Amino acid sequence: MRQLEFNRRMFVxxxxxxxxxxxxxxxxxxxxxxxxxxxxxxxVGANDWSDMKAAAGIxxxxxxKSARADEAIQKMVVGDGNKLYxxxxxxxxxxxxxLGSQNAIAKLDVSRIPNFxxxxxxxxxxxxxxxxxxxxGDIVAIPYISNADSLAFNHDVIGEExxxxxxxxxxxxxxxxxxxxxxGPTLTNTAIYLKQSGKQDIENPSxxxxxxxxxxxxxxxxxxxxxxxxxxxxxxxxxxxxxxSEEVLVSSCWEPIQIFAAKKNGADIRYGTMKEGHQAWNxxxxxxxxxxxxxxxxxxxxxxxxxxxxxxxxxxxxxxGFNPQMTGVGEYIDAHPDDFDANxxxxxxxxxxxxxxRDSVKGNxxxxxFPKEMRAFQDWWSKEQAA
Amino acid sequence: xxxxxKQGAGQTPGTSSSDLSRKLSTLxxxxxxxxxxxxxxxxxxxxxxxxxxxxTMFWMEPGFTLFAYENFFLSARFNNFLESMYYSLISVIVxxxxxxxxxVFVRKSVPQVAQHRVVLLFILPxxxxxxxxxxxxxxxxxxxxxxxxxxxxxxxxxxxxxxILYTHTGVVIGEVMSFxxxxxxxxxxxxxxxxxxxxEVCSDLGVRPLRVFKDVIIPLAAPGVFAGSVFIFINGLGVxxxxxxLGGPGAVNAGLIATQAIVxxxxxxxxxxxxxxxxxxxxxxxxxxxxxDITKILSPAS
Lengths: 387, 302
Hints:
Number of strands of chain B: 2
CATH architecture of the largest domain in chain B: Orthogonal Bundle
Shape of chain A: globular
Low-confidence stretches of chain A: 1-26
Shape of chain B: flat
Strand content of chain B: under 5%
Radius of gyration of chain A: 20 Å
Number of domains of chain B: 2
CATH topology of the largest domain in chain B: MetI-like fold
Largest interface: A-B, 29 and 33 residues
Distance between the termini of chain B: 58 Å
Distance between the termini of chain A: 44 Å
Helix content of chain A: 40-55%
Strand content of chain A: 15-25%
Mean pLDDT of chain B: 87
Number of domains of chain A: 2
CATH class of the largest domain in chain A: Alpha Beta
Order of helices and strands of chain A: HEHEHHEHEEEHEHHEHEHEEHHHHHEH
Low-confidence stretches of chain B: 1-10
Strand order of the largest sheet of chain B: 1-2
Number of helices of chain A: 16
Number of strands of chain A: 12
CATH superfamily of the largest domain in chain A: Periplasmic binding protein-like II
Oligomer: heterodimer
Structural class of chain A: alpha/beta
Largest sheet of chain B: 2 strands, antiparallel
Structural class of chain B: mainly alpha
CATH superfamily of the largest domain in chain B: MetI-like
CATH architecture of the largest domain in chain A: 3-Layer(aba) Sandwich
Radius of gyration of chain B: 26 Å
């Protein structure tokens, strides 16, 4: 089966309302709705969140959120975020520290989340993802998706498997390459490439020194001036459109962009495993101090419990290609053949295999939303944008 | 006595009504000033004050530093700013070439009773949300888009033209598509102030159309053309949406540079860019007003 042979029918069947399995808690709509500030990827199933509400057994009032860290910080630190939202999501690996340090989020009592026992071992104390859900040793967040971002490429046109970030900077793709308009993933992935290919000395791509940031940005500015990049994409739709219209042939992007671009134009657009490494990241759910003060903890913990259930994990893997954050997803899929037929199971198995391959690359680096030299990141990124 | 009372009672309401009317007139007179103070002078004052604040990790704090201005003028941002002025000027010229003849045509050739309707019909498509119109340009201008496919199927080009989208050209096209009504409207208003008999006199005297356009229409319509041009120029410089959707690496404008500063949590820089942009535009407006007296656009020609 081709990597992207995952059609709309399977998607609908997976995400549809029939998938609300028996045994899910009954709705407690008498209680106040949890005001959740989150992007669309925080849900599976129906677009109006009805499947999520039914599965969690709570009422949810979702408020659309962008992926911009600056927006989250401004809203929660200097804005009225705590008045507006009971819970919010954002990138782990920095955002929880920033919000924790500003007293914007609450410490969690994981004993109120039965599925916390299923959380993948990455988040146990001392493991790679442990710091992304903790602030000063306390758990302040629950992960719900993660991934290792990579390079999407149009195999139909290129005709070969790409396994190095080198392709992104290769002159044969001049004017047909794109990167994300976000200094976090773009600088980290470029730093991983430069470090692992021996082109620059970089100690930690996720937490570079000011001099290292300068080196990475100057490399990107040179590439930009040579006309290597068609554009820097912003937002999901933009990323999909660039690949599906063949405006670009290679793009460093999120996995759902590759999945939806391939579905949109039917081309064999693949998501490679880069030998140099990838930026790994996760998205986390946090309880705001305002939500806690308003007594929304019970609703929050029910949603957190759903996010750590195989019901959610299997569906986010199938629909958006994100890594489940809990164990037992394979068993869940096997136990629900009506929801996951043989073709879907094969697609998911392949997807998980590729994820495992990406996750095992030694050069991987975890996303750091607020590196120590954040000002250098921001200043040099501004220069890169202006160049 | 009772008559006096009646008269007195009749005078009091008359006096208070007159007072009220006077007060309302005064309020009406100063309301533009209040509006300008609340929605222009005050925000501008804050913009300038914040631009010299010290930036912090997530926001800014009171202080005095010209770092943001130094950072702006000594970096590529200043070049971008100048470039965006240059390309906004190109948008103005293209809009003038395309839009002003429409205004002239409507004024000269369409019967008086139908003129406003014709202008309205022309600008109807522009009532669709700007973001939708700008976004819709992508499938038209892209590599496999309508323009390239048409040119290829006609045999005019072999390879798709890639310099239309994600370039300054794309931004100019987007700006023209978005801001053309400004020049049509203001051009039409200016043309409306020109009595029709002037065209008839020119015709009777056998003046060539080009000379009528150059020596009669342009000088008389100059205030309106300038006002429309200023609207287009300001928007070309400040609307971040268009370069964000149609511009590529390097094709940015001042509005997008300010947005990028906000994304980088550099609030003083964003404020400094806004202050510089406003000062530049106020300067241009002042010079233009001295040259063309844009108040003329609202007063009929005598």
